[in-house]
Amino acid sequence: MSKEADFIRNALVESKAYVLDVGFKSLKLEELLLRIACSKTKFYAYFGTVNGLLIMVLKEEYRQMSLFIRSSMNEELRKDLCTHNIIKIRDMFLDKSILLTRYFNERNIMNQRFFALKKAVSNFESDVFNDCLKRC
């Protein structure tokens, strides 16, 4: 893997750990930069904004959710039960996802600077649901 790919992967892992430690609302750019061992210039070149990085972190969490739902769905599932089962399996994933639990607990107190993140999460939710619904 390239140095760039390693840097991005490490930044995502460390950013997730940092958010789990302090939460979304208490996140501070300077502390995040120390945690991922990155200058502001490099950070903005790779991620654009703090929201850009957080969106990437949560996108990976939603990718894991989609895989979990698809692997948990019964192949013989009746069409009329599909939506119910997708939601049920999603809730099972959320119960285990500390990151998403933290996001949903803080979502209503997040200020305007998190608008792009909230919009992205809404899109991720829709994408996961629609992707899984296609498999019914």
TrEMBL record:
**InterPro entries of this UniProt entry?**
Homeodomain-like_sf
Origin, by domain of life? Bacteria
Protein name in UniProt: TetR/AcrR family transcriptional regulator
Lineage, broadest ranks? Bacteria, Pseudomonadati, Bacteroidota, Sphingobacteriia, Sphingobacteriales
